[in-house]
Amino acid sequence: MRLLPPVTTPQSAVPILTPLSDAQLAKNAPLPLTPQTPYSQLNDKAINDSVQPDTSTRTRYPTVTDAPLSKPQSDALAAELNALYKSVMDSLGSEDARYIQRIYATVVYSEVIARGLLAAAGRMPSKRSLVATWLLGTSLLSFSKILNNMELGHNVMHGQYDWMQHPHLNSQKFDWDIVCPAPLWQHSHNYLHHTFTNIVGRDHDVGYHLIRVTDEQPWTPEDRYNMFSTAVLAFGFEWAVAFHDIQISADEYADSPNLHKIMQQKSRALFAKIGRQIGKDYIALPSVVALTLGRRSAFSTLSGNMTANTVRNLWTWAVIFCGHFTEQAHIYTHLDANESKGDWYVRQILGSSNIKGSKWFHLLTGNLSHQIEHHIFPDMPAGHYAKIAPQVQAICLKYGLSYNTGRFGTQLKQVLGRIYHFSKPSEKEWQAYVQSTKNADSTTHKDDRSAANLENKLEDKLAIENTGGLTRFLPPVVRKAISYAW
């Protein structure tokens, strides 16, 4: 199975359910199947019973090691969801096209007006008018960037509007206003995350290689700083997303003789996009404003751009984490080699969480406040999620599946509680860590990679270690990308 689409060819998020090779399955060998959730007690009677699952038997931070539904149940579930999907997709037409075009126009015009206000702020005669104009411009620019990122960029690059055959509002050509190139995000998100959702070791969005969010991730001393790491991730979320695929691809292609060529292509695309984004927001626009309106206007423009990007990062992080890491977001230990479309649907439902809110709230989340609907139908135009949510919830109830939803404040509190909970080791985890440190020096780790691959890894490691100057203070993944770029 091809894990890496070419950097110049974005991909939409249609679920990939083709059989995996033996080598891919061996990367995550199944753990013993032992029921740990109430869903493992369901039987075929649940198909016809409209009874809500007994919430008293639920555990916090559940892990699934057994199939929640039998194959006949999951097949029946898939048939109902497929019918719902088809009914919506068959109804798409001019109204949906006008909607996304209005969103695009709103993003463009709000950005233009916001940048005009930020430039004008420096020319205001009084401090009060300067602050008021700057706040209005920054707020409008934050709105534009959030809308660009969530409702426009995220959804268009999922292929939700490819049916329109629009010249640029399609998953093959659209690129958004953040430092991550579209093809890199589409590989790590559209393919890996949406195919292997919440499977530890396969879905790299589980913790983003930085935060422990399940007991299936072995505890290390660095996890004590979970809350601090989360704050860093939230403030710089677009940067984490940008380098996320570099870390993933370096691990996935470690055995490939073309490792350096593949990573060079990705790294160069990444740094080119970073250069364009930094050049636009922090160099070109402030410079033009400085030449035309003076230094005060340049500063108001620069500070407004920085603030808007930060606001967008914090908002995006909050929405994404509330959709994936609440108390009842299920984590899977392995990928079922015989996973059907119905099993895939179940995994998406149990691994996702919705957020209640107003119409404007849903718009600003890119309708990712309907994360369950998005995960089961990633290429359905997101504006339809609110309409089908009651039907999806009814289907979940019918099959005894949890439909996790709550207010934004409640979901965010659960996310932070989960992150804090897994920053501390249990007694068993602490003992395991102590024992592992004692055995570290005496244990020889086996490596089945070829000599050619070992040579490639050694060369790349030396290249990373030999990056001098200020680069030695950069995070390892950034240094890795720099080493591959040349």
From TrEMBL:
Polar residues composition bias: residue spans: 46-62
Oxidoreductase among keywords: yes
Residue intervals of the Fatty acid desaturase domain: 133-405
E.C. no: 1.14.19.-
Keywords assigned: Oxidoreductase
One Pfam family of this chain: FA_desaturase
Transmembrane spans: none
Region annotated Disordered, chain positions: 46-69
Example GO molecular function: oxidoreductase activity
Name the record gives this protein: Acyl-CoA desaturase
Upper taxonomic lineage: Bacteria, Pseudomonadati, Pseudomonadota, Gammaproteobacteria, Moraxellales
